[in-house]
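User: I'll paste a sequence; please echo it back and then give the predicted structure.

Assistant: Echoing your sequence first, then the prediction.
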Amino acid sequence: MAQRLTEKFPIDQPVEIWFERINLWIPGIVVRHQHPAVWVRSIDGRDWFVTNGSRIRLIQRESSAEQ
């Protein structure tokens, strides 16, 4: 069974979220859970409601522009 985002990404977990429109992974941190999704605060201070598991990943230290 697939893990829910709230199980896979705990609060305070550094992550990256995918913005297709600008073709870029943006770093952020999980700030709260709202089942079945998570809220991520990006580095510019905006909060994003992430519901799609393909648009969030653990932070990667290499180039954030790579998918």
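The chain has one helix and five strands. The chain has a mean pLDDT of 90.
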